[in-house]
Design brief:
3 strands; globular; Nitroreductase; NADH Oxidase
């Protein structure tokens, strides 16, 4: 067996069985998430676990309401149609018994205050912030979460398309933490399909450069 097989178990799952996910399993999955690398060991993440079906449905409705509110004053029918056609994918977490909202907190980019103190240009500051070091912590934690879930037989799906309704979602679930904002959502549950596949990946030689 390949020691990396656990990685290839992860797929984007959007259909789930009507089976509960025990809380101790969720705790194990979140614990795995927190073992991701974190710059300055700030661990600037927070995970909201929603197991209440009415709440999950309410989250989906909150997103839908925000989407229609956003397009209400738009006259470009094609633009509206293009935006709204993805709405069903934005709310697929409602098909799962659990929804996990992943929040990101403040992160001081190394060197930012120095650049500001020396009167650096906006371009210099943009170049420093461009790699988004704080959100990289969240990405690493989310990946850990999904790999752990897959290895335990659960399905997940990395979702950021609902971020246009992040303030409304935070208010709906009643989560407030200074400086924290919604970064991603994932459903969690037992996949409905027994055979899961992923889209083909680009050839290694296309995405890797070796300098010797």
């Amino acid at each position: 067996m390949n020691n990396l097989d656990f990685i290839y178990k992860r797929h984007s799952v959007r259909k789930f069985k009507n089976e509960d996910v025990p809380l101790d399993h969720i705790r194990d999955i979140i614990k795995a998430a927190t073992y991701a690398p974190s710059g300055k060991n700030l661990q600037n993440w927070h995970f909201i676990i929603v197991k209440n079906k009415e709440k999950i449905d309410g989250m989906a409705l909150t997103i839908e309401n925000k989407a229609y509110e956003m397009v209400d004053s738009i006259n470009d029918e094609e633009l509206k149609k293009e935006f709204l056609k993805y709405l069903k994918y934005t709310t697929v977490f409602k098909n799962a018994p659990v929804a996990i909202l992943i929040f990101a907190g403040p992160y001081p980019a190394t060197g930012l205050e120095i650049l500001k103190a020396k009167g650096a240009s906006n371009e210099e500051i943009h170049q420093l912030l461009r790699p988004s070091p704080g959100i990289q912590n969240i990405g690493a934690a989310t990946q850990n979460l999904m790999l752990a879930a897959a290895n335990m037989g659960y399905g997940t799906c990395w979702m950021t398309s609902a971020n246009f309704a992040s303030k409304e979602l935070s208010k709906f679930i009643g989560f407030e933490k200074e400086g924290y904002y919604l970064a991603a959502i994932t459903p969690l549950g037992v996949p409905e399909e027994s055979e899961l596949t992923s889209p083909a990946r680009k050839p290694i030689d296309e995405i890797m450069t070796i300098i010797e």
